[in-house]
Fold these 4 entries.
Entry 1:
Amino acid sequence: MRKIASLVVILLFTLPIFKLGAQTVDLLWQGEIYVSPFYKGRSLWSSESRITFVAIPHGLGNPANLNYKWIKNGTVLGNINGIGKNTLSFMDSILSRPQTIEVDIISQGDTVLASASVFVAPTSPVLAIYENSPLYGFMFHKETSNVHELKDKEVTFTAFPLFFSVLSRADNAINYKWSTNIGGEAEIRNSVTYRAPDDATGASQVEIGISNTDKITQSAGKSFLIQFGK
């Protein structure tokens, strides 16, 4: 009985040491695109945008002293491999296609100490619309879609171009076009204000389209109804 207890103690002390000594590498990535404040989730990669990968080794010593080998769709990227080169970044082309990225950490004797791979596919940019309240600011908890019930006489909407290759929603490369079924000139600003007709009940359809003048594949559109007079 005493021998069994001693064996259990030995196992309890040796197992954590084995886990700490594991040699692994994590491969993380994110798209270099615009997302709205308080956006939850990864910054996705879209067509004609830049994507960056970062290798994070564990149990292999100082990351700056390790030798990294990057492989893209089965082709070794020799020009960016080497000591301390733990990042890979490239721009997607107009003919977007999925990519398989692999990173190997190599010893001085050309032995693979750890490796990781990831499959990524470009996504389409999307358009998010939020009410800009004069009291509470942007209502990020509720995206405007389908039917918006107008509770006051007027409402201001702001467009957020998600997954576009721009620094902000006010970037000069983004073109906005708002229009309604009640006529009038189209608005070409990031934010617009609509006012309900006096003593009227009904609904008005709002349509918005945005495009990136520098990236021909980056565009998005959306439509919804404003209901008023209830």
Note: Residues 1-20 have pLDDT under 50 and may be disordered.
Entry 2:
Amino acid sequence: MPLYEHVFLARQDLAQAQVDALAENATKIITDNGGTVAKTETWGLRSLAYRIAKNRKAHYVMLDIDAPAAALAELERQTGINEDVIRFMTIRVDEHETGPSAMMRRSERDRERGPRDRGDRGDRPDRGDRPDRAERAPREEMEA
């Protein structure tokens, strides 16, 4: 059977439990039509690049699917009808990624870095230790 990645964006005003119910509903549609869902990832509430149907944010969910084309057509039909889903996209892939997806690896990396860490800058001198700038005299000495 062909392999697919299905990503959908749910409205921002939904609770996480409702988003999980949408993912379970998609999984049920696939399994009822003879396919399997290998992995489900919830990427969380993220900002959109532009407003879609008055939403500035959306809940992102990705499903790795192994299913026949008829099962996927039914999933896309029902996803298009659902008013809680504002966008969806399904692509065919040669193989599923092992481990977390790129979006999950990115969020883990961001959590490890912390809020103000901008990478490794240990070799850069502090602002006061810059040899290329001349020492400034205090204001009192300049006025005298």
Note: The longest strand covers residues 36-52.
Entry 3:
Amino acid sequence: MKEALAVNLRRVRTERGLTIHALARLSGVARATLLALEAGTANPTLETMMSIAEALGVQSAVLLASESPPLRLVRANDDGVLREDYGVVRILDQIQDIAVLGVLEAQIFAGCEFPRAARGDQPGTFSFIYVLSGRVLIGPVAAPVELGPGDYFRLRLDEPYVLRAVDGEARFFSGLCSTRPDGLRAVMPRRRQHR
């Protein structure tokens, strides 16, 4: 993941005619972090990836894509893990030929909620959740449902929703599919602030 990100980030930034300093200003990501990412020596958080992609006007999948054959094998110890305050997300695959599709393995910590859920600002985007362990409260704010191991749920992300662990941490597989051709400008219209 680090190598593909380094190459793609440098390529897209250059294509856009942006310096590292300009990208740092647009994305809200520290210049030092961008330099480390382009050098292939750092792993970004999910929020950092999304901020950079938004500033560049591309899907995050574009920054992580690598020239690869149609078959894909991901071993248990392969890279691709993003650690956040609310949990851990492991990117398993991303496809962008027809629509943008991301396949993730996720873990939400007890007492934490997915930070973007309350915004519901992802038009043309759906999420698919399959619970592996623990219990998850998920769904539209007005009518969330509780899921346990083996349960599956699909929801739209264009309205506020709930996604949090119930009584401890929860692990699940998630798919994210966006049919929007205009990338992150439509999916994430608001700029995030970074710590």
Note: Residues 182-195 have pLDDT under 50 and may be disordered.
Entry 4:
Amino acid sequence: MDFDGKVVLITGAAGGIGKETAKAFAEQGAKLVLVDLQEDSLNKTVSELNLDGGSCLTVAADVSKEEDVKHYVDSAVQKFGKIDVFFNNAGIEGKIGYITDTDISVLDQVLGVNVRGVFAGLKHVLKVMKDQKSGTIVNTASVAGFGGSPGLASYVTSKHAVLGLSKTAALESADYGVRVNAVCPAPVNTRMMRSIEAGVSEDNAEGAKKEFEKGIPMNRYGEASEIAQLVLFLASEKAGYITGGAYRIDGGMSAL
């Protein structure tokens, strides 16, 4: 999976999955455009990954704001002239709680990032890729996009929406040589799961983690580096005939 000279745009780049995916693409020779909410977090990521400023651009942006999305897309094209791969990855979990106990503002916040942000990213990146008549997009969905999960209604709703967006974007883009797919991880060993564990059981987050792991046939969370490898495959020429798909990476959960 050679990405030498390819321009890869990643949102949520300072988070667990985003950072590991940036690392994997950089190791394969890609030029990177890294987007996240805070410039400090992006600078830390660049430092940790030892990235070269000549082949890496950072853009602080709130993906729920379309003007910020347009800015990161325009910045990528201005610096590198193209976008070959878009990992549309930024997402939040929201406050844990049953529907009856959830303030509607929580839903608005989660949908703002996880749906509006994904939609706006597709809107502006697809314009670039359609003009190029090439490109690949990978959206981050979740196993939560296939079913329900008590206490996570806002997140579950958003990930169902991402799957619908991914399929629709794939159909709208196929004639232009652009592919769109979604990755659907089970729980991954990142900050987000620490937050969900604490939200489920503030007094016994470790116990919540063990309960989650019991529902995974491989008896463990996924690692961000494992998700990154699936993203690289879907973005690569090895997946040249794959579009409109939603790929679970879930330690066997889908086999239950």
Note: The two ends are 31 Å apart (CA to CA).
